[in-house]
Amino acid sequence: MSHPMGSPVGTDQPNAARVYDYVLGGTHNFEVDRQAAEFMISLVPSTRKWVRMLRAFLQEAVRLLVEEGFDRFLDLGSGLPTQDHIHAVAPHARVIYIDIDPVAVAYSRELLAGNPNVRYLQADMKRPETFLNAPEIRELFGDERRVAIGFNAVSPFFTPEEMRHVMQALYDWAAPGSKMFATFETKAAGKMTPRMAQFLAMFEQMGQPFYFYTLEECQELVRPWRPDHRGFRPLVEWLGLPPDYITEEDREGVDLEFYGVILEK
Ligand SMILES: C[S@@+](CC[C@H](N)C(=O)[O-])C[C@H]1O[C@@H](n2cnc3c(N)ncnc32)[C@H](O)[C@@H]1O
User: 14, 23, 42, 94 — which has fewest CB within 10 A?
Assistant: First the structure.
């Protein structure tokens, strides 16, 4: 097929950022991505619902942070910066996106071409020491380190050690008053179903293991960041959705729950 941006890069393998775009209802994806996404949805049918809430939370959190005066955003594991990402919600803010995936980075630079307020870095978000001093950050943020950080829909990519490391490094780098919006995809400790096990095995096979934590583990892993006055809340609450929006079936037999939080230094 022809790609809306005309760049048939890496179309023989599914790509995480494009799979995510497809699940969000976007058009920046190929047949191979759609097949992978549909397979994931066949294993965990509630995927689409959760993923849409994740993106909606990103928008809500960015709006709240703009209202609080934040105009610099550093976003980890950004995926494709399509029209509902940070720079679209906060058009006057300076935004640095980061992703490890070269395909996502190449597409993103095309999508963002000509936008002077936005940079897209290729880096490993698990190794903040490799990008926190990047010239692009200084160029866009100057010396200002009171910033808003995005950690949205990325927590399952981290082992506990990696999560502690990234939280501490970001905390040390950011100025007091900085905030971080984050989501956490949780399940009950010890609960598993055959379909969920297959879902997790699929990520493992792609070389990108996926971890679900409990809420208590997440609360511990974000330290030394502290939740602001709103605390850890299920995404349905953040988004003002009816409490029965997520059904028992959507919890997939493992008590799936996705939380959002705005952390502060
Ligand atoms: C589920 S998407 C989240 C996209 C976006 N943050 C959002 O909320 O819509 C996860 C993204 O993290 C990226 N990713 C995974 N591991 C990464 C790593 N070690 N460093 C940087 N990006 C990574 C993937 O390539 C993918 O684009």
Answer: 42
